[in-house]
Amino acid sequence: MITALTYILCAFALVEAAPVSKQHLHHAHKRDNTCAFPNDDGMVKLGQNGGWAQDGDCKAGDYCQYACKPGYLMGQWNPQVTSYTYPGSTEGGLFCNDNGELEKPITDNDYCYEGKGTGSVSNLASQDVAFCQTVLPGNEAMLIPTEVSASGSEELAVPGTDYWASTAAHYYINAPGVSTEDGCQWGSTANPIGNWAPYVAGMNMDDSGNTFAKIGWNPVYFEDSSPFKNEKPNFGIRLKCNDPSKCNGNTCEINPSTYGLNAVSVSQQADSDGAAWCMVTATDSSAITIEVFDL
């Protein structure tokens, strides 16, 4: 299980660096030495920073990150960067050249492509829930929104080993009633949302068709400076294999009313940051659902 956890948190691509081949996107235009958001091919234009999923505008000489619709992954990054090392880990998205034109670093890839389709959210709560995916490669802020309506469901983006550096998708899970506009951005100690949300999750698939899913308490929630560290959230989450016969570690739940703060349904508290977590693995390309429920 430690091997699987390591894989889902920080896996590295053992491939040679590919040559950079950039395709010009002529529909982009120059504006004060910046590149405009192209707004097509499944991309989601965010409400700040010109639509980009990053801090600030898309400036000449930079890689510019963007969000994709639920279940889809960003298909562009610097192909010469094949491991999770800084500053290469920030070079995701399209390249803005000196002429204010966007270029596709990986010409054969779409802007957005569908994940493995083995992860989803089922919202059993009475209000909408905001799942906020971190931008990687990028600044790793929780800017990519997936809004799950009350009593509804949505697909989550599950990367395979073909995704950048074979990394997993990571999500911050806000309480029911928090919108993606409020929850999918850097937060503060004013409210337990954004990077202060109580729960986090991660998902990915290996080449053997095993989908790894982890849910856990957010370590930031229990920092000394956190005013929420003694407050029980009013909702819980659990992992549920769609096919129990293809599931390893079938019991995995966070329920503060039952287990208390910083505790889960099983004894898997191995992170050095002290945050409790649990994990399940679905084999043979079967799927895992994250259920959200009121307390």
UniProtKB/TrEMBL annotation:
Residues 1-17 form the signal peptide. Pfam families: SUN (PF03856). Keywords: Signal. Belongs to the SUN family. This is Uncharacterized protein. The lineage of its organism: Eukaryota, Fungi, Dikarya, Ascomycota, Saccharomycotina.
